[in-house]
């Protein structure tokens, strides 16, 4: 499955149940051993050192082998609810 196809599925699921998809997208803390696993994509405040967080999107990107061409979440930025998830897309 390509990043574009994964984004299409995630968008379909977001439309079906936005509450569930928002909940699944929220990151949870993980330790350094987890963060260094080659089959997962995690985030950290400085992009290198901990503390680390992992989300369902990080698991999907990692398991699908997406390192450069990833699937990203798109958030509403024109006011309204902060960090309102509006969709997913393949990263340009």
Question: Would you give an account of this structure?
Answer:
The chain is of the alpha+beta class and 92 residues long. It has one domain (3-90). Helices cover 37% and strands 23% of the residues. It has four helices and five strands. Strands 1-3-2 form a three-stranded antiparallel beta sheet. A two-stranded antiparallel ribbon has the order 4-5. A hairpin with a 7-residue loop joins β4 and β5. α1 (3-16) packs across α2 (18-25). The protein is globular, with a radius of gyration of 13 Å. It starts with a helix and ends with a strand.
Brief write-up:
The chain has 92 residues and is an alpha+beta fold. It has helices at residues 3-16, 18-25, 32-35, 56-63; strands at 28-30, 43-44, 52-54, 71-76, 84-90. It starts with a helix and ends with a strand.
Provide the spatial order of strands within the biggest beta sheet. 1-3-2
**Total beta-strand segments:** 5
Radius of gyration: 13 Å
The secondary structure category is: alpha+beta
Number of helices: 4
**N to C succession of SSEs:** HHEHEEHEE
Biggest sheet, open or closed, and with what strands and sense? 3 strands, antiparallel
- How many domains? 1
Query: What average pLDDT do the residues reach?
Result: 85
The end-to-end span amounts to: 17 Å
Net shape: globular
Helix content: 25-40%
The stretches of 5 or more residues where confidence is low (pLDDT under 50) are none
Portion of residues in beta strands equals 15-25%
């Amino acid at each position: 499955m390509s990043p574009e196809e994964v984004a299409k599925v995630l968008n379909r699921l977001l439309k079906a149940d936005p509450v569930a998809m928002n909940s699944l997208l929220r990151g949870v803390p993980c330790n350094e051993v987890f963060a260094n696993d080659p089959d997962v994509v995690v985030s950290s405040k400085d992009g290198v050192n901990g503390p680390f967080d992992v989300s369902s999107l990080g698991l999907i990107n990692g398991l699908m082998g997406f390192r450069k061409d990833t699937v990203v979440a798109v958030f509403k930025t024109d006011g309204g609810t902060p960090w309102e998830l509006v969709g997913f897309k393949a990263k340009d």
